[in-house]
Amino acid sequence: MTTASDPSYPAHWEADVVLRDGGTARIRPITTEDAGRLVSFYEQVSDESKYYRFFAPYPRLSDRDVHRFTHHDYVDRVGLAATIGDEFIGTVRYDRIGPDGRPASAPADEAEVAFLVQDAHQGRGVASALLEHIGAVARERGIRRFAAEVLPANTKMIKVFTDAGYQQKRSFEDGSVHLTLDLEPTAESLAVQRAREQRAEARSVQRLLAPGSVAVIGVSRSGSGVGAAALRNLRDGGFHGHLYAVNEARAPGMEGDLLDGVRAYRTVADIGAPVDLAVIAVPAQRVPDAVAACGEHGVQGLVVLSAGYGESGPEGLDRQRELVRQARSYGMRLIGPNAFGVINTAADVELNASLAPAPATARGRIGLFTQSGAIGIALLSGLLRRGEGLSSFVSAGNRADVSGNDILQYWYEDGATDVALMYLETLGNPRKFTRLARRTAAVKPLVVALGGRHTPAGHLVPGTRLPESTVSDLLRQAGVIRVDTVTELVDAGLLLAGQPLPAGPRVAILGNSESLGVLTYDACLTEGLRPSPPLDLTTAATPEDFRTALTAALASEDCDAVVVTAIPWVGERALADDLAEALREAVTEVPGKPVAVVHVELGELVEALSAARATAAPPATAPPPASPAPRDRTPAAAPAGPPTAAPAAVPDGRIPAYPAAERAVKALAEAVRYAQWRRATADAGHVPEYEDIDESGAAAQLAALVTRVGEGAALTLDEADARELLGRYGIRVLPTLPAPSADAAVRAAGVLGYPVALKTTAPHLRHRADLGGVRLDLTTEAELRRSYEELTEALGKPSELLPVVQSMAPRGVDTVVRAVVDPAAGAVLSFGLAGVPSELLGDTAHRLVPATDRDAAGLVRALRAAPLLFGWRGSDPVDTPALEELLLRLSRLVDDHPEVTGISLEPVVVATEGLSVLSATVRVAHPPARTDLGPRTLPSY
User: Fold this and answer.
1) What is the pTM assigned to this prediction?
2) Interatomic CA distance for residues 424 and 409, integer angstroms
3) Which residues contact 224 (CB under 8 A, 6 or more apart)?
4) Which of 123, 192, 206, 299 could form a disulfide bond with 294, CB atoms 3.0-4.6 angstroms apart?
């Protein structure tokens, strides 16, 4: 008998999942304690569903059935249940079978699988989620194929199998459809899984941002406090749905009376109507009762403003974990705790369920996510002050459940959001974040400011161990516009939301101040842009002079963007409105290129530029389609030259203005780099296949090696094992022979052939040629003996130095290639030049695994010292194609085998033809129970 408390119970199979409609469910193994739940579940299933499951009328389960379906060994017989609260809503089980179709044990690698979903929950994606999880369990237990018998009329279940993306065979036998699924993940099955994940998580956020009814729990009669403030903001913000207040202190019999103009009730249960979203603002010790009341009433989502959780210490962290478990047990998602709230400016919603004073920020095209409430206030204020509005705003506080990843899923398909801004204190799961960010950045700009370098209190998701520079590289690879401050976040967002993407780095500068033009010119050079000499219109320039000059600059084929500089007119009142109108006329006449304004003490100009033109089309009043296609901002390519900008005019006449040249140019440079990334990734590249790779042999070798490793530990392979494993992927390591004495060194040289190298392998001297532990180009026995004597006299005894002899590699550039598996980010491929200068300067580039051919080429060229590989100062270029192939082979090895946790090839000498790997270190460990290819799950606490 197996219960959830038994050691054999596979607790790592438990998972919370988001279903198709945005609700949540928990998937877990079925135990012997579930007999009553199983019987109750079966009683709620329709006769038709029972017939489809058992191919015959089957009104009730016998005691034998109940015993069979609740007793599993979790190897050959496994059952999983999808639950909400304490009730089953769906089940799946597999039984391992042999070639004859009868029950079997390993090494049989096929299993029969069957599902049953409660009718009330069909259509929510329960069976699809169960298939993902039972498939992962089966692969873990050595099962490679599922077989299923389905009645032809059971079209829903047939669709679950056929839509999964697995390779499958289908036949019609004895009146039923026989399906066989190969459980090895494919590109199609992974794409299906991630598409379902995106739709489900986006829908779960949509339910929070577009509710039909909202209840604020914890509204005081005095009108003071957080709950009352949230209620006022909802009311004054013009929320289009039903609004309720909940105050437990209200006297019985007063239900439905008005409180601050809103109907108020003692409890959620008293409302007597559906509630989609609950805003909870009661003390932390009373939150569990409020959550339970919401769950029993069928509330779909929560915004928890209450503090006293993870940010307050270990007890609060435990309280926070329990809050997440409780909310999910009712199928609810939550924002918070310690949240600032959410805003949705859609014309048919107008939700301000936040502590931001009403009226909320204007409707716009920017989506904003923050963890910090204080930063959220600052960003909202900054955007509003500069005339920009929002599509949506989420300040998630401790983000115990809904995180930035969920919001990215929503923004990806949100037609009201053109630019995404995020202030994050940690990335949480960098591997998933970079995957989602890459997809989002392909259709709309994503600007991120990282405000923390360590995991803050209250944040339950473990941070990454990767250095900050590595995380930045990975974000840039994913197309993220990484900025350092909230000011830069707003600056970049304003430019990207209101201007087309630049087609290249060429910048025209014009204005009425020569000095300000020069400052702008210098800032462009600092940011890697290509500015033209500034055009000085002189301080006597009129608005018409600005219009004429800007029109000419925009029409020129020699520039991709324009920066206008402006200072106050001396002796006259600044004609801010006239100048703003003149600049807008020029932009309207020649659209398609971004324009930014740098001003000095011209506050009136900022207001005039940020105001929408009266002739501009009004904001849409109709809601966007359910799943609109994101607006494509990709610049089109120009013939025989840099790509041209997207042919889009400024939609409402607003032009971003900046009080300093450096800020305007920084925002423009980020837009240039982002546009270049968009063009470069139009062809994403591919992961090459190499015919000489022995994947199965490597898998067998690793399976044997990890038997020598304890749980939670890692093993560094000896030289022979490392060379053998790398060789299976076509990576040859130049052999070495030990030289414990001078005579042994001579014998080793005789085996390898002169010329040879003599080097130490002691840990404190490894890869430290600067300490004198290496002797090269030894062509005779006499030279070898003399070098051996010098080495031992200078550095220590042979037993301390551990000297070896190695064949000489062709001369070239010494490089370092590494792959490391970070628990949060996954496998990361790194490349740099060998030597102290590169280490001191941090000149190393990184890419996520699996790397494509484009990634490998970019990795080689990303170093500041990359010119050394391409013929610096007349030297011969080295064989970079061979280097790129090495990177791709190493990426494949790490990606194919999760047992490999780290590889270091140092040095790799890249010659004019070919390369030589002189030393390799490989670390292995037991693979994690679940990988990024596993089933979709919510973070577990």
Assistant:
1) 0.84
2) 16
3) none
4) 299
